[in-house]
Amino acid sequence: MDRYKIIKKGIFESLSKFDERINSLSLEGWRAISIASDQGTMTVLMEREK
């Protein structure tokens, strides 16, 4: 069974800090399966096997 997590970029969060957060989650075993951006809002769907 897989687990999913939705990560959203904060309003005042810089893009580099958001990238660091995504990269730290990937080191924990999460992988990005979908990335969406709309008018400055970024959302990443991440998946990890249980």
Query: What radius of gyration results from the CA coordinates?
Result: 11 Å
Low-confidence stretches: none
Oligomer: single chain
Task: Indicate the percent of residues in helices.
Answer: 25-40%
**Largest beta-sheet characterization:** 3 strands, antiparallel
Give the strand content: over 45%
Number of separate strands: 3
Strand order of the largest sheet: 1-3-2
Structural class: alpha+beta
Give the number of domains. Answer: 1
Number of helices: 1
Euclidean distance between termini CA atoms:
6 Å
User: Overall mean pLDDT score?
Assistant: 94
The H/E string reads EHEE
Shape by Cα distribution: globular
Short description:
This protein is of the alpha+beta class and 50 residues long.
Describe this structure as you would to a colleague.
The chain is of the alpha+beta class and 50 residues long. It has one domain (2-49). The protein is 26% helix and 48% strand. The chain is built from one helix and three strands. The chain has one helix at residues 15-27; strands at residues 2-8, 31-38, 41-49. Strands 1-3-2 form a three-stranded antiparallel sheet, with helices on one face. A hairpin with a 2-residue loop joins strand 2 and strand 3 (41-49). The longest helix is centred in the middle third of the chain and has 13 residues, at 15-27. The chain is globular, with a radius of gyration of 11 Å. The mean pLDDT is 94.
Task: Spell out the blueprint of helices and strands.
Blueprint: E1 2-8, H1 15-27, E2 31-38, E3 41-49
Antiparallel strand pairs: 1-3, 2-3
